[in-house]
Fold:
Amino acid sequence: MPTLSIRLPRSLHEQLRRVAREEGVSVNQFVLWAISEKIARLQALEEELQARARRGSREKLRAALAQVPAREPLPSDAPDADA
Structure:
């Protein structure tokens, strides 16, 4: 099994040790669990976005855009409005 060394700020390392202890697991087990959970969430999000993309179509996009009123943008919508 590969080994991974990471540098953590002292405060984060202390929090990690505290939470792992509260959960009754080792720091290593907690980090593995956290990484696994994050990867699973990202994969689920990617699958959801792919499913939504499959439901979309150019025709649906054009139909939605056709409902937008034709008018000049507000001054606050200008690219340099925040500058």
